[in-house]
Each structure stands twice: as C-alpha cells, then as structure tokens.
Write a sequence for this structure.
C-alpha cells in the first residue's frame, strides 16, 4: 500500500473515530433515557475507553465469558424484555421487519454475519462478515460490540452480565421458524473449561496483523525459513497470542480452541471431545504438514470458511515459520521441517 494510501486510511480512521464518539455521546443521552439509570453511565464510559485504547490490548480486562453453558437454562422472557427495552429502538424483530438504525434481527442466529441484504453495514462489520452467527460469536459481539468489530456502527456499550447476555441470545434464537440447535454437551464442556478470554486474545492479535497488512502480496514460500527459524520467538508469540484459547502442554485441556501439543504432523481438527466448526470438520483427518499449517495460520478464515478460530492470522512469513518451528518442537515426535 502506498504511503498516501495509508495516510488517507489514517484520516478515515480518525474521522470515523470522531464520528463514532459523537454517536456514542448522542446515544448516551438516548440510552440513558431508556436504560436502567445506575448502569448507563458506567457502560458508556467503558465503551469510550475501549475505543480509545484499542491499540493497547494489555490494558484490556479479561474478556467475555462464554454463554454456551447458560443457554439451555436461560430465561427467554427476560431476554425478550431486555431486547425490547434496549435494542428495539434500533432493531426490528418481526419477520420481514424493516431495517432501522440497525438491521432486522429476525432469524439472525445461524445467519451469515452482517449480511442482511436490506441493510448497509459499516466497512468494519463487512470486514468481519465471515461465517455465521453462533453462540460464541454472538455472545462476544454483544458483550462488547466495539471490541468484536472495532469501528462498528452499532453504538451500544455491550451487555457485561453473562447471564443477561445468555438470556438475550436464547431469545434471539427463538426469532426463527427453525431455531438453531442448542449447544451440545461437548460444546458446553469445551466452553466450561477455565480459559482466558477469546476477545482479549483477538484484540491482542489485531495489532500485529494490522501492521503486517503492508507485507508484499506475493510472499515467498516459507519453506526456506524453517532452517533459520527462531523457536524462542515463536514460543513467545504463541504464549502471547494463542495461549488464551489453546493449552500447549501434553494432555492439556481444550479451551476456546483445542490443545496444541504435538499438533504438527497430527491429523487436522481431530482432538477427541472438541466441538469443531463444520468447516473444520470437513477438513478433519488430513495431516498438518508444515505447508498446511502455514496456510492455516496465515489466514484461518480463508483456509477454513466459517472457522471458529477468532484470530486474524500471522501475515509475516518469518514469524509464521518461527511459530510453526516452535509448535513442531512442542511434541513427542517432531516432523522434519522443509529445509532442515
Ligand atoms: C443505537 C442503535 C443500536 C442499538 C441500541 C443496538 N444496535 Fe445492534 N446494530 C446496530 C447497528 C447500526 C448495527 C450494524 C453494525 C455495523 O454495521 O457495524 C447493528 C448490528 C447488530 C447485529 C448484527 C446483525 C447482522 O445482520 O449480522 C446484531 C445481532 C445486533 N445488532 C444485536 C443487538 C442487540 C441484541 C441489541 C440490544 C442488546 C442491539 N443490537 C442494540 C445498532 C444498534
Ligand atoms: C480466540 C481464540 C483463538 C486464538 C487466539 C487462537 N486460536 Fe487456534 N483455534 C481456535 C479454535 C476455536 C479452533 C478450532 C477451529 C474450528 O473448529 O473452526 C482453533 C484451531 C487451531 C488449530 C487446529 C487444531 C486441530 O485440532 O487441528 C491450530 C493448529 C491452531 N488453532 C493454532 C493457533 C495458533 C498457533 C494461534 C496463535 C498464533 C491460535 N491458534 C490462536 C481458537 C483460537
């Protein structure tokens, strides 16, 4: 990308930031009038802070808890009351309802993200429009819209209470002629494992990925880079960017993502008891060669459409080689990497 291209992007971002801040303040007044009074100022303050410090993920608190374990017992009528009070000013809920400030929400659970043809989404949301709305993605989005989609046009501070979020999503699920299935026992088990937050990790990951966007499009094969890969650097990056979702020790429990011990050379997406996305399941059984791992880690959503791995990818080839070299070493039986 040219320098002036970056500058105008920056100007766009600043303009969007100012605009968003304006909308948030406008919204603060509006929402304050319809929201529970003691909660409104606090939530709006959090949303503004989040926007200004988006580039400093270290300051982010532990992110949203999974709602999956709570869905089956969630209170749908409480969720409905909450949505009518806090969301219906912007969203219609009836089948075929018109778009308002936000898109119609009938049938949104299970639908393609940010893809309602009768609504014009922000570029930020369009950029995030990969896969379909599931319990985790919807829970994370509603916990903190501007963390899930930095720059979103949805000026809503988020639902911080996990039970309330589960009630709301359980209600959204019923807005459909054929509601999506409730989470399976395996999904509940996986979501109940004690792990740090997915949203924090995603935020942390966003910075390097954005920086790497300037990398040349026609990147060389990383096969020549394994011989000189820096395993310690790879380990540091994995600890920082992946370990919130993945355990790395032998026999470690699944978290948001499956355990990664011995993953290089193993069968793809085949950890027993982990509830993979359908896209991942379609690839299950193939082998994680160095090249396959490189393609996946470069752009997970391109490699597995609809993947649940909320991670933008490692665009820098040398960094990816470092990470793969570390993952390969973290194994009882490392494979021979190309060029080594
Ligand atoms: C101030 C207006 C406003 C409020 C209040 C609001 N939203 Fe939104 N919502 C939007 C806008 C605008 C978008 C589109 C986001 C974008 O384009 O970045 C959106 C998008 C969404 C989406 C994505 C829909 C799709 O087509 O993929 C969902 C789901 C959603 N909102 C749910 C909610 C819920 C639930 C609440 C209440 C808890 C809520 N919203 C409150 C304005 C609002
Ligand atoms: C926000 C949580 C999250 C982060 C951060 C994350 N992952 Fe994942 N990862 C997942 C999920 C969820 C899956 C399962 C994908 C699916 O089912 O679509 C997955 C799958 C994988 C797999 C395939 C495992 C298998 O069983 O075949 C590998 C390899 C992987 N991740 C590596 C990484 C690495 C390396 C990083 C950091 C650079 C990372 N992940 C960051 C959530 C995450």
């Amino acid at each position: 990308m040219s320098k002036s291209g970056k500058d105008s992007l920056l100007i766009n971002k600043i303009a969007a930031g100012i605009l968003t801040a304006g909308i948030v303040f406008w919204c603060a007044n509006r929402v304050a009038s319809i929201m529970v009074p003691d909660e409104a100022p606090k939530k709006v303050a959090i949303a503004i802070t989040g926007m200004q410090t988006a580039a400093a993920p270290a300051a982010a608190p532990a992110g949203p808890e999974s709602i999956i374990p709570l869905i089956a017992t969630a209170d749908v009528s409480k969720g409905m009351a909450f949505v009518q009070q806090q969301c219906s000013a912007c969203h219609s809920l009836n089948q075929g309802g018109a778009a308002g400030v936000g898109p119609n929400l009938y049938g949104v659970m299970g639908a393609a993200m940010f893809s309602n043809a009768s609504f014009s989404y922000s570029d930020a949301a369009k950029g995030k429009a990969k896969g379909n709305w599931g319990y985790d993605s919807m829970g994370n989005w509603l916990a903190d819209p501007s963390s899930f989609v930095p720059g979103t046009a949805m000026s809503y501070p988020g639902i911080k209470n996990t039970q309330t979020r589960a009630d709301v999503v359980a209600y959204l699920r019923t807005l459909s002629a054929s509601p999506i299935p409730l989470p399976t026992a395996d999904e509940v088990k996986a979501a109940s494992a004690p792990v740090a937050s997915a949203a924090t990790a995603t935020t942390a990951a966003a910075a390097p990925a954005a920086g790497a966007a300037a990398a040349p499009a026609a990147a060389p094969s990383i096969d020549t880079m394994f011989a000189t890969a820096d395993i310690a650097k790879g380990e540091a990056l994995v600890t920082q960017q992946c370990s919130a979702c993945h355990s790395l020790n032998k026999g470690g429990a699944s978290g948001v993502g499956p355990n990664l011990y011995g993953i290089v050379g193993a069968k793809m997406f085949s950890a027993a008891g982990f509830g993979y996305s359908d896209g991942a399941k379609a690839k299950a059984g193939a082998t994680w060669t160095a090249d396959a791992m490189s393609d996946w880690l470069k752009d997970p959503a391109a490699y597995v459409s609809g993947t649940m791995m909320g991670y933008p990818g490692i665009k820098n080839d040398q960094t990816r080689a470092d990470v793969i070299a570390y993952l390969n070493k973290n194994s009882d039986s490392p494979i021979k990497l190309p060029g080594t």
